[in-house]
C-alpha cells in the first residue's frame, strides 16, 4: 500500500524531482493534499534517520526554556516529530518576552541545571559566553559522531551564522577564525521598511530609497493622511531603540559605534559623519515621528502600523509581517521594501536580531541536548516552520529557495521576498561585541531622547555621549 | 435629622460622584476594553460605541487565543489558580505563625524581643532580587525549587512581617487588664489568648490578613525566578498576551478583570475591618 507514493516522495527527498512534479504526480495517484503532507513528513523523518543514529539517546529527557514567540509555537507544533525520531522526551517552560531574559539570567547565574537549552539573542551571548554559562557549540558542530550528515551547517546564512560567533575578546570581529559559536541561529529579523500602500498612494508618495527621501516621504505621507504620523521608529530609553532602523541606517554610512585600536575601544559617535546622520534622524522624528516617540518599543511601533496610525515603519521586517495579518485594521494593506540610507552605498546593511538556541553549560547531558539543537535548527524543521507556521525570517538558504515558502510570501506579503533578497547580503550585527554593550547602547538611546526633545544640540550631545562612553570603557579596562 | 441645605446636599453628591468616577474610571475603561476586539480598541479616535463581545473571556477560559500569528495557547486559568493557592496558603501560614508571635511581642517583653521583631520587619527592606539568587541555590539544594511548598515559604517574606507588625500594634492597643481579669478567674494564658485577645484583635487580624493577601497576590518576582511556567501567578501570566506578534489588548483587559475580581470582592467585603483595623492598630493610647 502506498508504495508508489512512497517512491515518489523518496525521489523528491533525494532531490530527483521538483516539488511541483511531486504534487502533480501524487494528485494523479489520487492522494489528497493532507494525505500527501502526512506521507511526506513520514518519509522525511525516515530520510533524516537513514544515516545517523538518532536513537542514541532514546529514553532520555531534556528541558527547554523558551520565549513566547511564533518560532516557539512552530517548534512545539512539530515536536512530536523529534520525539518519534529520537525516542527522547522534551519538556519546556514558555515565559512571556517581557520577563523572559530575567528568567534566563536567573537560571544561568544561579548555575541551575533545570534547563538544558534555551532561546537567546546573539547580543546576550556576549554576556553569557564570557561568564561561562553557555558552551562553544563548535565542539558539537565539528564532531561527525554527534552531528547528523544532513545538518548542512553551511546552509545557514553566513552573516547570521557569523554574528552568533565571537572570540570573547572585546572588539573582536564576529565570526573570526578563533570565534566560539555561542549560539545556533534559529530565526532572524532584518530591519527594513514596511509601509501602508494605501496611505502612500493617497499622499502621492513613492517608496523612499535613501535617508533624505525617507525624511521627505515621512513628512509627505503624514501631511497627506489625516490623523496619522509619518514614520514609526523605536524611542524608549533602551538599547533596543538603537539596534533596529537607527543602526541599520547609521551603519549604511560606514559609521560605527566604537573604534578598535589594537584592542583599545573608543566611542565613535562624535565623528562629523555621525553628527550629520544624527541631525537628520532627530529632525525626522521631530517632524514626522510619533508624538509619544520616547515611549515607543517594538509593540507600539507595530501596533500603530497595524492600526493605521502610522504611514510606515523602519524596523524589523517580521514586525511588518505580523501586522499584515490577524485582526489588525490594516491587515493586507502593508507592503515591504529594502532600504539603504546612504545613496552611495552598494545596498542595504540591516543590523539584525537573531533568535537563537544555546545549550546551558549546566545541562546534565549536553550530547543528548545537542540532538534537539540540531533537529530544531535543522533544514527539515526550518522548512516545516516556514511553510506551515510563521517561522520568518528563516536562517537557511535552502528554505528561502523553497517554492512553496516563496509562494506563500508573495501571495500575502507583497515585496517581502524581494526585500529579503536585496538586503540579506549586507545583513549582520553591526555593533562591536564587548561586555558593556547594554549599558553603552542604553545611554546612546537616552541621549537620542534628549536630542529629540531639544534638551541638547546634536553636536554637543554626541560629544558628551562619547566622553561618557570613553570614561566607562577606561574604567572597565577596555580603553 | 439632616440639617444640610438642598444645595449643600447636591454639591456633596456631585463631589462624591466626581470622586467615584475619577477613581473607578480606569476599572470601568478596562471592563469596556475587555468586551471589545483589538480592532475596535485601537480605533483612532477611541469611541464608546461598539458591539460587545465575550470573545476575550471565552478565549482566556478555553486557553486558545487568536493572534496575528495564528492561534496560540495560554494557560491563564492555571495562573489564576496558582495565585489563589499561593496567596491563600501563604496568608494562612503567616497568620498561623504571625498572630501568636505578634501577641508574644506585644505582651511578653523578653531579652532581644525588639531585635527579633525588627529583624522580621527587615525582610521587607531587602530588595527581592538581592536575596533571590542565593535563595535559588538553597532551594535547589533542598529540593524546594519549583514547588508550591517552597513558594509558600518564600512568600512569608512578604506576609509574615506585615501581619506580625500590624497585629502586634493591635494587641498593644487592647488593655491588658481584661486579660488579667480573665487570668484571675483561673484561666491559663493560652485560653486567655484564644478567648479574649484573639476576638478583640479580630478586626486587626482581618485587616492584616487582607493586606497580606493583596501583597501576595501582586507579587511577581518570587515565582518567576523560583518556579517553572506551570506555577506562575497571574502577574506573570498576564504578560503572555504581550507577544512579538502584537499586543492582545482585549484579552489583557479581560485577564485584568478576572485577576482583580477576587481581591476586589475580598476588599469590598472586608473594607470596614480594613479601615478600622488599620486606624486602631496605628494609634497608641
Automatic annotation (TrEMBL), chain A:
Its main location: periplasm. The keyword Transport applies. It is found in: Periplasm. The keyword Signal applies. GO terms for cellular component: periplasmic space. InterPro entries: Bact_solute-bd_prot1, SBP, TAT_signal. Belongs to the bacterial solute-binding protein 1 family. This is Putative periplasmic binding abc transporter protein. It comes from Roseibium aggregatum (strain ATCC 25650 / DSM 13394 / JCM 20685 / NBRC 16684 / NCIMB 2208 / IAM 12614 / B1).
TrEMBL record, chain B:
GO terms for biological process: transmembrane transport. Signal peptide: none annotated. The keyword Protease does not apply. This is Putative permease abc transporter protein. Belongs to the binding-protein-dependent transport system permease family. The lineage of its organism: Bacteria, Pseudomonadati, Pseudomonadota, Alphaproteobacteria, Hyphomicrobiales. GO terms for cellular component: plasma membrane. SUPFAM superfamilies: MetI-like (SSF161098). InterPro entries: BP-dep_ABC_trans_perm, MetI-like, MetI-like_sf. CDD domains: TM_PBP2. It is found in: Cell membrane. Keywords: Cell membrane, Membrane, Transmembrane, Transmembrane helix, Transport. Residues 80-270 form the ABC transmembrane type-1 domain. It is a multi-pass membrane protein. The chain crosses the membrane at residues 12-32, 84-106, 118-141, 147-167, 204-229, 249-270.
